[in-house]
């Protein structure tokens, strides 16, 4: 991997965007390496969750303008389609994916973070879309995912003005779920991911799917989907183990079956 570093720890994958010479800016090579990595992790049943972060004090500073500025329209389509495919792959990943961000979280980097289940940050994080300043617009789904998270008006303001949103404001508007001290961000997010993944992974996977799919359909149909997923849980060993452990006042030993 030329643009990423990968670490497997306690059945969790830590993926770091790693182009420190250019603030982890996103190029085609990084997109393809991320896509390959998530495809491999998806098929690895030993991996319970993913933590996505960046090196050298930043998450990602946006698209690599040295590469992007020379695109033809056809090359721009290929770049956008590759980025959208990656973000859809992250969003549909069957296990939890948390983004731990700091420093610059801009443009394509913010779009990748938005595809994760949710974003956690430290106080140095700055979020923004600068694309209109360069005569283009977000292309990896940012114009669609950001309004769904913070509302249409705030999303338009961020995209139209290109202003940077600091960590405190990002927390207030719902772009970020929690803030942690810079010195402990990765440890704190890793511990949170550990806790999430200690629960029954089958119910966790179904819960993620129900939330994501239900947000795109009408409430009545979504509630029926929730009901059916709830019923499926009662055919699993994890449901019997989880409820049995609670009654017996012991720690559950989930098997993922």
Going by CATH, the homologous superfamily of the largest domain would be: 2-enoyl-CoA Hydratase, Chain A, domain 1
The percentage helix is: 40-55%
- At the fold tier of CATH, the topology name of the largest domain is 2-enoyl-CoA Hydratase, Chain A, domain 1
What is the CATH first-level class name of the largest domain? Alpha Beta
| CATH architecture classification name of the largest domain | Alpha-Beta Complex
Short note summarizing the structure:
With 257 residues, this protein is α/β, with parallel strands linked by helices. It is 48% helix and 15% strand.
Task: Write structural notes for this entry.
- The chain is of the alpha/beta class.
- It has two domains: 4-197, 2-enoyl-CoA Hydratase, Chain A, domain 1 (Alpha-Beta Complex); 201-247, Lyase 2-enoyl-coa Hydratase, Chain  A, domain 2.
- It is built from eleven helices and nine strands.
- It has helices spanning 28-42, 65-68, 73-91, 107-114, 142-150, 152-161, 167-172, 185-197, 201-214, 219-233, 237-247, and strands spanning 4-9, 12-17, 49-54, 97-101, 104-106, 118-122, 126-128, 165-166, 178-180.
- Strands 1-2-3-4-6-9 form a six-stranded mixed β-sheet, with helices on both faces.
- The protein is globular and about 60 Å long.
- The relative contact order is 0.11.
- The mean pLDDT is 96.
Q: Can you lay out the helices and strands and say which pair or pack?
A:
Blueprint: E1 4-9, E2 12-17, H1 28-42, E3 49-54, H2 65-68, H3 73-91, E4 97-101, E5 104-106, H4 107-114, E6 118-122, E7 126-128, H5 142-150, H6 152-161, E8 165-166, H7 167-172, E9 178-180, H8 185-197, H9 201-214, H10 219-233, H11 237-247
Parallel strand pairs: 2-3, 3-4, 4-6, 5-7, 6-9
Antiparallel strand pairs: 1-2, 7-8
Helix pairs in contact: 1-3, 3-4, 5-6, 9-10
